[in-house]
Amino acid sequence: MSSDPSLDPQTSRHLTHLLATAQREQRLPSVAAGVVRGGRLVWADAIGTLDGRADGVAADTDTQYRMGSITKTFVAVAVMRLRDDGRLDLNDRLDDHVPGSRLGGVTIAQLLSHGGGVQAETNGPWWERTPGGSWEALVGSPVDQRFRAGRRFHYTNVGYAALGELVARSHGLGWFDVLRRDLLEPLGMRRTTTRPTGKAAAGLAVHPFADVLLREPEHDAGAMAPAGQLWTTVEDLARWAAFVGGDTGDLLSVDTLAEMFEPHTVVDLPGLPWTGAHGLGWQLWNVDGVRFAGHGGSMPGFLAGLRVAVDGGDGGDGGDGVVTFTNSTSALLGPTTVQLLDDFREREPRLPEPWHAAGDAGLLDLTGLWHWGAGVVTGRIEGRHLVLGEPGQARGSRFEPVGPDEWVGLDGYYTGEPLRVIRRRDGRVSHLDLASFRFTLTPYDPEADIPGGVGEPGWH
């Protein structure tokens, strides 16, 4: 076990106990995990052995495991970097960049968010257990759309093979060569590879009714590799968790990362509440108003998890995250992943940021009571933001300045909408023009250019 000196020793022991309990109760050959806060790995541990035998080599935080579909998040970031460089538009059809893909009019954004309706798996044998072929071989047989593009969420491994091909063709390099050059090496993730190197766990299946093991095959997945090929360690994936939390090392803008976390397709499971969605390459979870981003991963012999709080749930910046691995084909790693992060956050709450006076006295004339028709909302200044109403309630929103007396909405109904402060000749505020609505200092102020006018005799 390793832990940050600032972490309560009882918290460290509790997290290790959770991990050991999961390893014992689920009969996992080995399990490894780490917790990230403030861009650093603050706790990590591993239980079990690489081959599941009592006398085997002990797993540790530098042991490689297959991350499975967490690979997709790296491919997605590489695609967004192409977008930010002006080399593609998310509304482009994949065929515009990968001719002959046989994916019709499916857009890059739809592939990133699993909204294109593309078939989930290949037409050949179970691709995760058989050697992979070329891109040409993959699309040599018809690639079907199970649903109309844009209709609904339908997870597709084939779609991410296509995105990996897009990345490769755009750079004239193999998809992993691009990831290594542009993401892994700058972030110091030198133990993240396409095949096992150095100390690595064996991919194992555990018999459901006996304590015996079966070795799973491992191979190059070829054109399907971008959907789930990568191997990594707790320490390396913890750096990626820090990336998710906002420490991008200037490899991706904060605005683009936030855009990737916007939900595009809802994961609609019959009888269950809508708590899961997919953004541009990321799984998203909304738990009691706290937004988490990450991804799960599975390949024969391996399961992995990545989960990061990206908004904190209390107006903070979030950034607390967890990574988990096991070398077992069938297990319930997800609940352990969630519990490790939840218990860490409960036992080690962040201190609230201290309040400091940082307002602009020149904006005081925008505070107080405003009237939209006969409704009443309160305007206040918080730092550099103008806040009308309560964000998250009705049409409450924050606005950030974009020019003299010009603002843009950040929340809810008014996200992206313009707000202009209209002043009288003497400089006093007359009213607010918000997306064509008038907010006045008195209800239906006849001097504030109310659309439709104020009928005679006025209030009566």
How are the SSEs ordered, and which strands pair?
Elements: E1 2-3, H1 9-25, E2 30-37, E3 40-48, E4 65-66, H2 71-84, H3 108-112, H4 135-138, H5 157-171, H6 175-187, E5 204-206, E6 213-215, E7 231-232, H7 234-244, H8 254-260, E8 265-266, E9 276-278, E10 283-287, E11 290-299, E12 302-309, E13 321-326, H9 333-347, E14 368-372, E15 375-382, E16 385-388, E17 397-403, E18 406-409, E19 418-423, E20 429-434, E21 437-440
Antiparallel strand pairs: 1-3, 2-3, 2-13, 4-7, 5-6, 8-9, 9-10, 10-11, 11-12, 12-13, 14-15, 14-21, 15-16, 16-17, 17-18, 18-19, 19-20, 20-21
Helix pairs in contact: 1-9, 2-5, 5-6
At a glance:
The chain is of the alpha+beta class and 460 residues long.
Question: How would you sum up this structure, described in words?
Answer:
With 460 residues, the chain is an alpha+beta fold. It has two domains: 2-73 and 170-347, Beta-lactamase; 361-440, no CATH class. Helix content is 22%, strand content 23%. The chain has helices at residues 9-25, 71-84, 108-112, 135-138, 157-171, 175-187, 234-244, 254-260, 333-347, and strands spanning 2-3, 30-37, 40-48, 65-66, 204-206, 213-215, 231-232, 265-266, 276-278, 283-287, 290-299, 302-309, 321-326, 368-372, 375-382, 385-388, 397-403, 406-409, 418-423, 429-434, 437-440. Strands 1-3-2-13-12-11-10-9-8 form a nine-stranded antiparallel β-sheet, sandwiched between helices. A hairpin with a 2-residue loop joins strand 14 and strand 15. Helix 1 (9-25) packs antiparallel against helix 9 (333-347), helix 2 crosses helix 5 (157-171) and helix 5 (157-171) crosses helix 6 (175-187). The longest helix has 17 residues, at 9-25. The protein is globular and about 90 Å long. The model has no long low-confidence stretch (mean pLDDT 93).
